[in-house]
Amino acid sequence: MVQIARLAAGSLIMLTTMVGPGGAAEQQFSCKGQVVQEMTNPAVQPKPIDLNVKLGDTNKLFITTGDGKMLAPRITSNNKIQLKFATKEFVGEYFHYTGDLFLIYNSGPLARLNCSRS
């Protein structure tokens, strides 16, 4: 009986740690990075990108840019590994386990950001 209780408790702990991106709680992230480009001119530094990202409990995504612009991207898919979304300006892919966020702009550039919970 004690073994069954321990096994059940261990299973519950494992289940709660595995529930991440699909959980019901709102998640907030601070993301920082830059556009990744060929270094044609080393004197020109890429412009830094700062985003505040909020993933709501109803699978809604809100992004605030560093200059205060609010975006409400459309989520195209969300699973344990990856969240994909789209705006008029770019397509985004966020990886839940690593915190990496990639933005693929319609004009061609690729941006890589690292996100941490805020």
Show the helix and strand layout:
Elements lengths: L1 H17 L8 E10 L11 E8 L5 E5 L4 E2 L2 E5 L3 E5 L3 E6 L4 E6 L4 E8 L1
Antiparallel strand pairs: 1-2, 1-9, 2-3, 3-4, 5-6, 6-7, 7-8, 8-9
Q: Hey, roughly how much beta strand do the residues contain?
A: over 45%
Largest sheet entry: 9 strands, antiparallel
- Quaternary state of this entry equals single chain
**Global shape:** globular
The percentage helix is 10-25%
Distance between the termini: 42 Å
Parts with pLDDT < 50 across at least 5 consecutive residues: 1-22
* Total helical elements: 1
Order of helices and strands: HEEEEEEEEE
Number of strands: 9
The level 1 CATH classification is Mainly Beta
- Please state how the strands of the largest beta sheet are arranged side by side: 4-3-2-1-9-8-7-6-5
Secondary structure category = mainly beta
Radius of gyration from CA coordinates: 18 Å
CATH architecture label: Beta Barrel
Mean pLDDT level: 80
| CATH structural fold name | Lipocalin
How many discrete domains? 1
